[in-house]
Design a protein that fits this description.
The complex is a heterodimer of chains A (about 550) and B (about 350). With about 550 residues, chain A is mainly alpha-helical. Chain A has helices spanning about 5-10, 15-30, 30-40, 50-70, 95-105, 110-140, 145-170, 175-190, 195-200, 210-240, 260-285, 315-320, 335-365, 380-400, 400-410, 415-450, 475-485, 510-520, 530-540; strands at about 40-45, 80, 95, 245, 255-260, 330, 335, 370-375, 455-460, 465-470. Chain A folds into three domains: about 5-35, no CATH class; about 40-245 and about 255-375, Cytochrome Bc1 Complex, Chain C; about 445-495 and about 505-540, no CATH class. In chain A, the strands form five sheets. Chain A has a two-stranded antiparallel sheet. Chain A is globular and about 90 Å long. Among the domains of chain B are: about 45-120; about 195-335, Rieske [2Fe-2S] iron-sulphur domain (Rieske Iron-sulfur Protein, 3-layer Sandwich), CATH 2.102.10. In chain B, about 30% of the residues lie in helices and about 15% in strands. In chain B, strand 1 (about 85) and strand 2 (about 90-95) form a beta hairpin. Chain B starts with about 40 loop residues before the first helix and ends in a 16-residue tail after the last strand. Classes of the chains: A mainly alpha (about 550), B alpha+beta (about 350). At the A-B interface, helix 6, helix 8, helix 9, strand 5 and helix 11 of A face helix 3, strand 3 and helix 7 of B. Strand 5 (about 255-260) of chain A pairs antiparallel with strand 3 of chain B. Chain B: One of its GO terms (molecular function) is 2 iron, 2 sulfur cluster binding.
């Protein structure tokens, strides 16, 4: 709408209703200033940028369905007799929590659907965060200025795991009770304070009559409250930093190229919420999740085989299954290393990935802002570290399902466990080396493409009988994209003596840093990208080499 | 983490100096940024007929969504909640859950698909570049903020009036202690409660399934029997807590097969009673291999040899299962001859 048009409409009478509401709000909330920088904000397009959206939307779905579930769920461990419509359990003693979950599943119309959407969305939420984190990690999107947002995201991932855990413990069914017992055993292994923490958490001896009510307030209020704050902070920072983008023609570190929030991303992102919700609702319609009625209410002396936690606790489960049962008894005390070491490792493995951006920033010494994403191949050491980390993670997921692997593939449980124990140490090393080689190979291929062009698949026979493949030079867009990445030089410690022949003091941290820097950016760790001279020399005269 | 000591030349050349399409490709630098490629029109941009088709597709998707919502309401009212139907290939499912889920899923998905199709085909897809600005404040602003802060700090006199500062810090440090104190009543102190179970001398071993006291002849060779102490009933208030410690498994071995001397002494005619609670993290053990006398915890696969003092032969458990000393009373029933001599279940710091 042009200014003249709006002026004429103004002169004829009052402004349209929407405008008047906006004016009213602006006078009180300053929305025009906010809208100026955000309404037409540019977002770049790439399929991998959608992963974070999956997380955001599944989080919203979890909140919506979770509120509905609280209307029917009774977070109480009082014992009642079941009289609902699920025949096999009728007359059985169970906690009110389990009773009300059965009520939701069988007697509230649509209750089972909402319960299944809630659970499926939680599984998708955490899987989405995992993959989103991998995207951010492997493309180096965590670099300055986004380190804080990386930590926000990491906290969301960890809190999401614990919210999930407390959530599936609430129905007080046999499977979840077994998981809670596992957690209690892990807490008991903590030296000195473990027994006290367990007694304070459960209000006495396990299982007591309190934990469902306590987990309930943690699950629906404490953790989601913190997470909601973190999600808002995460999004504000995404807007404030502006989204990262991949290198390409016209895309620099000082701009962001894409389409505006209004209307394109409003429609795309808003629509995507409905797509995610729709798919999860559909999955909840056809795929059963956590059928709590199948094995009944929790009894500490009963268990079923093949007990598995939700997937995101599989790593912890694997650590605890693979660890040998070491125990040290000294001076009347027991150090339960067989359980405590897995508990510590669980934290260490997670913190390693959280701390990585700061370690890399220290090694590179780079304090500049980075808005252009790395292709994983162009940061071989980082990529290799990430794959090694994933290897540990997935080896432990296998460990967490060692019984299932044994029964489904007809293997010995002992063999599977030993495989996991050995792979925990060997796997990441192999993965690191292999990944680095692959990255370097891909860098060489990129270099080859830049210098010699694209393989066309056309075979030409030269007059003297030689066959050659015709290579087609790349366009300038492609040349720029393939050579736009940064390459660091390894840090040099300098000569051991200064100009006066006096020995220079080099701090130990500096030596470590130089070593790491060499490992990251030495000749073994990156292929020098083609220079303009090389390119000109090859392309100028004799065509083929 | 200072990086001042990293020489500038180790960092890659200044990034992003090429701004938009400033760096025109030339003889000098074939790798230079050619700038944003020209916009390519979609069929909908040039052909109004195609745009109309897109419009109709979007409208159709939104209409399907409306119909699906009506379908949801109809299913909610019409489908009985206990009806089960066969759906290929997933098998028998709750009809109501299936109908509600599919209609809700469709209603939501079509809104999303419509919006995305609208954005992709009809909204402008011209790529625009937005400038970024460094996040760091300018040196002037930085100096100004620091100066303001110094001014404020000076006016508060916090640095000068040490008495105020120190007492305030003291008060603020102490006040959270009230909160910590309030947590004390979350639970009782452990004391020695983890060392004791309901078992004591003379308590009969009651079959968990039949709720009848066990006689030696009830325990067949090769079978695994679960038992609880007499007087513990399912509707007791403490049932869960007590059974979590007192659950017992009973097997009959040939006395000559028992390798452990103490185990033999504490058994009765080859009948041995062990805690059912795994010493790893407390799962109930439930799998018995009668040929080898091994029991396996299904949670984490700790394996114990019941013919050899229930020592750990595989898996993550750290110590043997505690054995309960049993005998037979005058009436011929199996009874406990005392409590477990060591704590049952997972190990803990005070276990010793």
């Amino acid at each position: 709408m042009s200014t003249t048009a709006s002026n004429t409409s103004r002169s004829r009478g009052k402004a349209p209703g929407g405008e008047r509401v906006a004016d009213w709000a602006d006078g009180r909330l300053g929305i025009y200033t906010l809208a100026k920088s955000n309404m037409r904000k540019i977002f770049p397009d790439h399929w991998s940028f959608m992963l974070g959206e999956v997380c955001l939307y599944s989080f919203l779905i979890i909140i919506l369905t979770g509120v509905y579930l609280t209307l029917f769920f009774h977070p109480s461990m009082n014992e009642v007799q079941y009289h609902g419509s699920y025949v096999p359990l009728q007359g059985q003693l169970m906690s009110e929590a389990f009773n009300s979950t059965l009520h939701i599943s069988f007697d509230v119309r649509g209750g089972l659907l909402i319960r299944q959407i809630h659970h499926w969305a939680a599984v998708v939420f955490i899987a989405g965060m995992f993959v989103h984190m991998m995207r951010v990690f492997f493309t180096g999107a965590f670099r300055k200025p986004r380190e804080v947002n990386w930590l926000f995201g990491f906290l969301l991932f960890v809190l999401g795991m614990f919210t999930g855990f407390t959530g599936y413990s609430l129905p007080d069914d046999l499977l979840s009770g077994t998981g809670v017992r596992f957690m209690e055993g892990a807490i008991l292994s903590v030296p000195i304070v473990g027994t006290y923490i367990s007694f304070f958490l459960f209000g006495g001896e396990f299982p007591g009559g309190d934990f469902v009510a306590r987990f309930y307030s943690i699950h629906i209020l404490l953790l989601p409250g913190i997470m909601l704050g973190l999600v808002v902070g995460h999004l504000i920072l995404v807007f404030y930093h502006k989204h990262t983008q991949f290198a390409g023609p016209g895309k620099t570190n000082n701009n962001v190229v894409g389409m505006p929030l209004l209307p394109v991303y409003m429609a795309k992102a808003g629509g995507f919420f409905f797509l995610v919700f729709g798919v999860i609702a559909f999955v909840a319609a056809i795929a059963q999740i956590n059928p709590i009625w199948a094995i009944g209410p929790y009894r500490p002396d009963q268990v079923s085989t093949g007990a598995q936690p939700d997937w995101y606790m599989g790593m912890a489960e694997g650590l605890i299954r693979a660890m040998p049962g070491w125990e040290i008894n000294l001076w009347g005390h027991t150090l339960v290393l067989g359980v405590f070491i897995p508990l510590v490792l669980f934290g260490v493995i997670l913190v390693a990935i959280a701390a990585y951006p700061f370690i890399e920033a220290w090694v590179t010494g780079d304090k500049r802002e980075h808005h252009i994403l790395d292709r994983p191949r162009n940061a071989p050491t980082r990529t290799a570290f990430g794959v090694a980390w994933l290897t540990v993670y997935f080896v432990m997921l296998i460990g967490g399902g060692n019984d299932l692997f044994a029964t489904h593939f007809h293997l010995s449980i002992n063999a599977v466990t030993w495989f996991v124990r050995i792979s925990y140490f060997v796997g990441p090393v192999i993965a690191f080396i292999v990944t680095k080689r692959i990255c370097l190979g891909l860098q060489r291929r990129d270099k080859d493409k830049v210098l010699h062009g694209r393989e066309t698949g056309t075979i030409k026979r030269l007059p003297h009988g030689e066959f050659i493949e015709v290579h087609e030079p790349l366009s300038q867009e492609q040349l720029h994209t393939l050579t736009a990445h940064d390459q660091y030089k390894p840090l040099q410690l300098g000569p051991a003596v200064d100009e006066n022949g006096v020995e220079r003091k080099v701090r130990a941290t500096q030596k470590v840093r130089a070593k790491l820097s060499e490992a990251y950016f030495g000749e073994e760790s990156q292929i020098a990208k083609p220079s303009v001279e090389e390119y000109k020399e090859i392309t100028s005269g004799h065509g083929h080499h | 983490m200072s990086s001042q000591d990293i020489p500038e030349e180790n960092l890659p050349a200044q990034q992003g100096h090429a701004h938009g399409a400033v760096d025109v490709a030339d003889e000098k630098n074939p790798f230079a940024d050619p700038g944003l490629p020209p916009h390519e029109h979609r069929i909908q941009d040039i052909d109004e007929e195609a745009a109309k088709r897109s419009e109709r597709t979007v409208a159709l998707l939104f209409t399907v969504s409306m119909l699906a919502t009506i379908g949801f309401i109809v299913s909610y009212v019409a489908v009985p909640h206990d009806r089960s139907i066969y759906v290929f290939p997933i098998g028998h499912v709750s009809a109501l859950n299936f109908a509600l889920g599919v209609t809700l899923g469709l209603a939501l998905f079509c809104i999303g698909a419509g919006a995305v199709h609208w954005a992709r085909t009809l909204m402008s897809d011209v790529e625009v570049a937005d400038e970024r600005h460094p996040i760091e404040a300018s040196p002037e602003l930085r100096a100004k903020v620091h100066e303001d802060f110094r001014q404020g700090a000076k006016e508060s006199a916090l640095g000068r009036r040490k008495l105020i500062r120190n007492t305030m810090l003291g008060a603020l440090t102490l006040v959270p202690l009230s909160g910590v104190m309030l947590l004390r009543d979350l639970g009782p102190l452990p004391g020695t409660s983890l060392r004791h179970t309901m078992w004591s001398k003379g308590k009969l071993l009651v079959n968990m399934n039949t709720n009848e006291p066990l006689r030696p002849e009830d325990v067949a060779v090769g079978s695994l029997t679960f038992a609880k102490p007499e007087g513990l009933e399912e509707h007791d208030e403490d049932f869960q807590k007590e059974i979590a410690k007192a659950a017992l498994m009973i097997v009959r071995l040939q006395p000559e097969n028992i390798k452990d001397k103490r185990e033999l002494e504490w058994s009765h005619e080859g009948i041995v009673a062990y805690s059912k609670i795994c010493t790893h993290v407390g799962c109930p053990i439930s799998l018995y291999e009668q040929q080898t006398h091994h029991v396996l915890c299904p949670c984490h696969q700790s394996t114990f040899d019941l013919s050899d003092g229930a020592r750990v032969i595989f898996g993550p458990a750290g110590h043997a299962l505690p054995q309960l000393r049993i005998g037979v009373n005058d009436e011929g029933y199996l009874e406990a001859l005392g409590d477990f001599e060591e704590p049952v279940g997972p190990a803990f710091w005070e276990r010793g």
